[in-house]
Design a protein that fits this description.
The complex is a heterodimer.
Chain A lengths: L1 H16 L2 H4 L11 E4 L2 E4 L2 E4 L2 E13 L5 E13 L9 E3 L3 E5 L6 E5 L15 E2 L11 E10 L5 E10 L1
Antiparallel strand pairs in A: 1-4, 2-3, 4-5, 5-9, 6-10, 7-8, 10-11
Chain B lengths: L1 H27 L9 E5 L2 E4 H17 L6 H25 L5 H17 L5 H12 L5 H6 L1 H22 L6 H11 L3 H8 L2 H30 L2 E3 L6
Antiparallel strand pairs in B: 1-2, 1-3
Classes of the chains: A mainly beta, B mainly alpha.
């Protein structure tokens, strides 16, 4: 009887700590506020000028809930958007190498999705549907990191990286 | 006797190793004496060996920082193309009467510095920028952003941007069929294809993306044509 109470208390504690997002039937995380400035610079007649590029991470995920309070990641849409904040067209090439790292919340194991192709310029969140289904894996308190790399050949740095973290 | 032979052999091996290392190190080194006094003439601009070597070193450093090492001739080509291209573009800017006002230059510097302020202070690129400003003798970014020489020099690359924007404005919006083709090509799952095709917001994003791609292509073609017809003379052996 005592053991049963302990188990019940443990179950309540566990269930109580499950964030709402984890057992929602669908959950989307829109990272539209995650704007990052990449501080490129250019040189003109010996003077260094700032040439910032603003990159915004867009991230949406669909999770399917289960009765146990766990969620399974069903589909992920992710991309990065370059904002030309000034009207001047800069001759830069964007190379997106997004990488998502998930912790399953149960073990120390991290599960990683690396998009196998280069992403493209000014992609929207719906242009690429990196759909995948991994029904055997459940995630709890997912911790996600996305990376983007921008190549700007006319600048002093050439490459700059940006990353976003979303911890639920 | 055997000991002496071994010693001699060791010395020979050491010397050959030193020579190999020295030869390898020398292969990528950049020295102004490697170039003739005048390296390039384009328009009214003359580039000396000192200026050229300095630029090549900077490009090399940029690639080294990014762990994307290239051959020395690669950096030389990059520098030559950049100087020629900028000069040819500046000529077109003058011909078309494109001008940047003091207000536009001030606004650009104010906004771009504000964006740099968002970057964390230890960022090496931000540090590099702030150090460069100090090296020029400015006590603050505000002083730098209000300096006449800085403002006038900024107008040079801002005018190039205006030219790029003029060319971009001549590009037509992509047709609906092009949007459909793109969705079909990029999406793997039939269900997704139908969903995206029927989503007006997604179509709008794709349309914008395709337009920007076309604009970038048009600008690159313009630059390519300018480059192929441009009047310049290179005094070093390089195949651009």
């Amino acid at each position: 009887m005592k053991n049963k109470i302990v188990l019940l208390l443990l179950a309540v504690t566990l269930m109580g700590s499950v964030p709402l997002t984890a057992y929602a039937v669908t959950w989307t995380k829109d990272a539209s506020t995650n704007r990052v400035t990449l501080p490129f610079t250019v040189e003109e007649e010996g003077i260094i000028f700032p040439r910032p590029v603003v990159v915004e991470g867009e991230w949406q995920e669909k999770w399917d809930g289960t009765q146990g309070g766990w969620a399974t990641l069903n589909r992920l849409y992710h991309c990065a958007v370059i904002h030309n904040w000034d009207p001047i067209a800069m001759d830069f090439i964007d190379e997106f190498w997004p990488e998502a790292n998930y912790n399953d919340g149960q073990t120390d194991n991290w599960w990683s999705i690396v998009y196998p192709y280069q992403w493209i310029w000014q992609v929207s969140y719906k242009q690429y549907k990196q759909g995948y289904n991994n029904p055997g894996t459940y995630y709890y308190n997912p911790d996600v990191t996305g990376y983007v790399r921008v190549w700007a050949p006319d600048t002093n740095q050439i490459y700059l990286w940006s990353s976003w973290d979303w911890v639920q | 006797m055997l000991k002496k032979c071994n010693l001699l052999l060791s010395l020979v091996l050491l010397m050959s190793l030193c020579l190999t290392v020295a030869a390898y190190a020398g292969q990528g080194s950049i020295n102004n004496k490697d170039y003739p006094e005048i390296v390039l003439k384009v328009g009214d601009k003359t580039v000396t060996n000192n200026e050229f070597a300095e630029q090549v070193k900077k490009v090399k450093t940029a690639y080294e920082i990014n762990n994307t090492l290239q051959d020395k001739s690669y950096y030389e080509k990059e520098v030559l193309k950049k100087i020629i291209m900028n000069e040819l573009i500046d000529q077109v800017v003058t011909e078309r009467g494109i001008a940047v006002t003091d207000e536009e230059s001030k606004k650009y510097l104010k906004e771009s510095i504000a964006l740099f302020n968002d970057v964390y202070k230890e960022d090496p690129n931000k540090v590099f920028f702030i150090e460069s400003v100090k090296e020029l003798g400015f006590s603050s970014l505000e002083e730098y952003a209000q300096n006449k020489k800085v403002l006038d020099t900024a107008k040079i690359f801002l005018a190039r941007g205006k030219l790029a924007a003029e060319i971009a404005a001549t590009v037509k919006e992509p047709a609906e069929e092009e949007v459909d083709e793109f969705i079909q090509e990029k999406s793997k799952v039939e269900k997704d294809i139908i969903e995206i095709k029927n989503d007006p917001a997604a179509r709008e994003q794709i349309r914008k993306y395709l337009l920007q791609k076309k604009q970038l292509k048009a600008y690159r073609e313009f630059k390519q044509e300018l480059f192929s017809k441009g009047n310049y003379e290179i005094y070093i052996s390089v195949d651009l």
